[in-house]
Amino acid sequence: MTATHSLPGVRVPVIAESDATGRVADLYETLRKATNMPFVHDVFRLTSTRPDLLEIVATGYTGMFGDGVLPRQTRELIAAWTSKLNHCPYCTGTHNWFLRQFGGSEELIAAVATANTPADLPLDEKTRTLIELATKVSTAAYKITDKDWDTAAKAGWTNPEILEAVFCAALFNFINRLVDATGLGDSMR
């Protein structure tokens, strides 16, 4: 069995990169390439003792942040905003950092941290419409109607773009809950 380690405050054991073997080592390499970082982020290591779950997380992340139809800046905005709505400072901070790397303005980054509604964000109408839909995915997905989808389409978003925005918001609802439930985000509170 591969050696496991503890991260401060985290409720599950994790496999260090230096100890990873087999499928975990392969997935860690996939994630390093996908993030273009020389290390594997702690959020991915949360499921490292279960390679089957790690593969799901890696597939979701690489699917969302690989080649997509939405600009990377928009995807990072959705990730940061969804995390803000879910009160997950770990993910809000991480994706606000990525938002900055992909062209988000300082004004937008500051607003994501303090805004209460999409109307409080410095966005053009088209982007605001998409963020309103992403907000509804996080706060009341069961209330999404054809009208919500049509509103985004009328603002100029294509069906593949709308689907990607909904997927991104849904993925970050999952990731936020994984981070919070395992204790990774506790140090940021």
TrEMBL record:
<dbReference type="InterPro" id="IPR003779">
    <property type="entry name" value="CMD-like"/>
</dbReference>
<dbReference type="InterPro" id="IPR029032">
    <property type="entry name" value="AhpD-like"/>
</dbReference>
<keyword id="KW-0560">Oxidoreductase</keyword>
<dbReference type="InterPro" id="IPR010195">
    <property type="entry name" value="Uncharacterised_peroxidase-rel"/>
</dbReference>
<dbReference type="Pfam" id="PF02627">
    <property type="entry name" value="CMD"/>
</dbReference>
<feature type="domain" description="Carboxymuconolactone decarboxylase-like">
    <location>
        <begin position="51"/>
        <end position="118"/>
    </location>
</feature>
<dbReference type="GO" id="GO:0051920">
    <property type="term" value="F:peroxiredoxin activity"/>
</dbReference>
<protein>
    <submittedName>
        <fullName>Putative peroxidase-related enzyme</fullName>
    </submittedName>
</protein>
<dbReference type="InterPro" id="IPR004675">
    <property type="entry name" value="AhpD_core"/>
</dbReference>
<keyword id="KW-0575">Peroxidase</keyword>
